[in-house]
Design a protein that fits this description.
With 41 residues, the protein is an all-alpha fold. It has one domain. 95% of the residues lie in helices and 0% in strands. The protein is built from 1 helix and no strands. This is Stressosome-associated protein Prli42.
């Protein structure tokens, strides 16, 4: 029982970190796209 509850807590924290990582990647992609557009224009 204790192991399951710990796993649940860990998964919740992992999900939050994954969300933050995805947001960072999205921002990086947007910045690179905008830089590329500015370079082409």
């Amino acid at each position: 029982m204790s192991k399951q509850s710990y796993a649940k807590r860990k998964s919740k924290r992992e999900r939050r970190t994954k969300l933050i990582i995805y947001i960072m990647i999205a921002l990086m992609l947007l910045s690179t796209l905008t830089a590329g557009l500015a370079f082409f224009i």
